[in-house]
Structures are given as structure tokens and as C-alpha cells.
Amino acid sequence: MNNTVRKYLINVARTKDKFVYYSNVVRDCNLGFDLSNEFGQHQLSVVLGEVSTYENEHERPLISSLAIYKDERINDHGDGFYKLAQTLGKGNAKQLRKNLYAFEEAERCRSFWQNEKYYKQFFEINDHQPENQEKEPEFFTSEEIEFFKVWQYKPYDPSLNDHVYAKNKLMDTVWEKSNYLGQQIVKGLPGFQCNGKKYWSQRGWKDRDGNKVQAAVFKPYTWIKIYRDDHRSMDIFFTFGIDVHPNTQAFLYKIDIQRTRDSKLSDIQIRLADTLIPDTAKWNEIPFEKLLSENWKSLTELCIGFINSNLKYYDATVNAVWGGRIPSEIFKNTLISRDRPIRGFDEFPKVKRKFEEIETDFAQKSRDDKSLGDAGEMLVVNFEIHKLESIGRSDLAKQVKKVNDGKGYDVLSYDEQGNTMYIEVKTTKGDELTPFYLSENELDFLKLNDYKYFIYRIYNFSLEDNFGEFFRISGDVESQLLFKPTVYQVLLKNM
Fold first, then answer.
1. Which of 23, 90, 339, 467 could bond to 328 as cystine, CB 3.0-4.6 Å?
2. pTM of the predicted protein model
3. pLDDT, position 209
4. Inter-CA distances, 390 with 251, 337, 381, 384, 385, Å
């Protein structure tokens, strides 16, 4: 939490009837966010959300209600404030906006912080005891987990005492303990931080007079996020926590991705991250029976060990997803699926012939090209097998194969519905725009099997690491490519 922002807003609350603009918060607190783009706006939203969440956890008004848009046409708070209020169990976001909840909350902030007693007592944060005096909570208990199971996914009604009791009990037990675990983990990992916000509710639905209406519901998990200090806004992190969903019922740990509509990651970035994160790091469980035999020391060591053993994949994934190179030495024996490049060519570049003597070992070039091609084809075979097995189509996976030369394509495979796929593999060590070649036989086969025909263009290929990236060309393949003859078959004419 940014305590500078918190104190700044508290002092705003102590000025009668005063609001502050979002741009003022950035400027006066030296945040350095660029509010002209969505990323900068999201950064500010995160900071304000953390400050108000902290105040809410201490049963004080949401202090970010004192910050509003500078645009007089809007003269209101951002969507982020109302989404946060809904997450914190204040009600439906749309209804809160309609009822001018933020302005009422701002008035409550002023009333609270203009009270000198409260100001002196709570302005400075004294929540944390010295490390050597920190009290270790009791480990997770069976009773807490069973209570959690009962309340998962139930719509929250703050007017009902048992609902308020349940929220407070869960916050003080499984949520508080999950956050404690996160703090213990980062103590053993310099340069990391824990996001253990106790967001006990999520968006859901409830019945009202026979109709489904949006409501806050109890979450079925207490996942906490752990990430490097400089990866705070990257939306890729390690996740740990209790999960009482009927299909899980376990303590969960994994490398995870922010996938909700609040995520800064595009669909392309999410797909890339899903490809790069190893299967062994995507989902790991400790059944509750085994978890309850653990203690804070053993569980903390397990979590730290998981992070250390997967750190190279985590770092490489974050870097690649945000525009960096994908290191082939880390992702050996891997084929990475990418989107087809939008940029290309409108015509073939003009070539100026030099007609200079070139020494070429054609035999060695042929051997090198064959090694490159064979390696790329086997990567595609393994990629297709894994694709089909991952969706439960082992029957089809068993039929994937590399075909012999002369068929007009390289790999026989199938899509999720069992339709035949004829895959022509073109592999290069160059980039995605490096030209490739189709034989007359391959081109004729393409024309006969257009919508069953796929070109997998592998690029940035490393023969040493057996690694490459690729994109698919499918559908009306001919219309997506420029063709130029480079070799002519020659016959003697009749005289």
C-alpha cells in the first residue's frame, strides 16, 4: 500500500467539502503515472484500490472516494472505485453509482478524519509489530475449511447478521492466514512482494423476485499473489491459497495469469503466457487431509521451493509476454504458437543482380536444409499430439504422423472436431517474414485441399535447443501469399 497517497487523501478529507482530481494525486504524490493511457490509469486505480481496501479492513470509510475526474462533464468517480466498492461488499456497482454512493462515502471520510481523536489515533500506521514480536497464528484448521465450504458462492446480504458473521469469520481465519503465509514466503525471497488483499467476495448473481440480479458472492478461494518488486503491474504471478471449490478441495499453488476484464494482458499475451508456463507449474494441489498435517514452516518451505524451482520460467514468461525475446535455452524442445503477423508485403522487393561468383557447397546446404526441415516437422508432430491429448482426444493423437515425401504436405493431423488437417511445415532460423518456398507438387496439393491445408511457418528456430515459434496460414491460403517463380524447368523446343 502507498502510505503517501493514503496520508495525502486523509489531509484532503480534513479540508471541508474538498475533492481532489486524479491528476492531482499523481502529481502531488510523485507517482509518475501517465493518465493519458489505459496502463497509467490502471496503475493509479491499483494504488487507490489498495489504500481504500486497507481502510475498509480497519472499518474506516473508503478514502479514495475523495478523488474524482477533472472533466467537468463527468464530475464523478471512475468505474474502478465502484467495482472496488462492490468487491468489498458495499453493493452492486451500477446501483451504487446511481445512488451517488461515492459522494456519501466522501462525506463519511470528512466526518471521520476531521475528528481530532481519530486523526491522532489512526493517521500514522502502527499495525505491524516488530518482527521478533510477531505472533504466529494457529495453522489452518479443519473447522475453518468446512465453514468455508458452506459459504462459498453464497450471495452476500449485509443486512443479515449471519452473513456479516460469516464474512468476518472467513476474513479472520482462512483469509488472514493465507495472507500470513504470503508474508512468510516473501521474507524468504528478497526482491519479492505479496499481494494478499482480502477480497473475500466476487461478482455473482442472486435471485430477487424470480429474477437474477448481480450481487457480491463469497469467493471459493483465498489465493494470494507473489511477484517480483518490478513485476507488480505485469499481471503474471505465483499463486498460493485455499480452494474449496468442489472440483478442487485443496491448497493450490501455481504460476498464474490475470484473466479477468480488469487484466492489462491482451488475449494474444494470455495465449503466449499459457504456452510458456510449464504444465508442471500451472496447477499443483495439496489435499486438505495432507495440508492439515503440515505447519507454517513446512508449508512456507514448500512454497519457496516451488518459486525457486520455477523462477527461470516465470522470469522468461513475464519478459516474453511484455515484448522481450523468448530464450530458446530455457524452453528447449518447445514450439510456441503465435498469431499470424499483420504486416507483410504488397509486392516482391526489387532485386538488383550482381552476377558475382559465389562458392556454395550444395551438398552441405542440402544436408543442412534437410536437418532443419526434419527437426521442424517433428516439433509439429509433437505439438499436434500434445494439442489433441490436452483436450481428451488421445484417439486422434495416436493418428498424427509425419508422411513420406511426395504427398504434397508433411504432417497429418486433426482438429478438435476430428476434421483432417494437411500440414505443410516451413522452418527457418530467420524471422517471421523470411521468404519460404513451395514446390509445384505442394502448390497443386494446396489447390486441391484448400480448407484442409495448413502452412505452419516456424521461425527463430534453434536446432541446438530444438525450439521455434510459429504461426498458421489457413483457409484461402493462396490469397494470403505472394508467389514468384525462382526456378524454371526447361525443355528443348521443336525446330
1. 467
2. 0.66
3. 65
4. 24, 15, 14, 10, 9
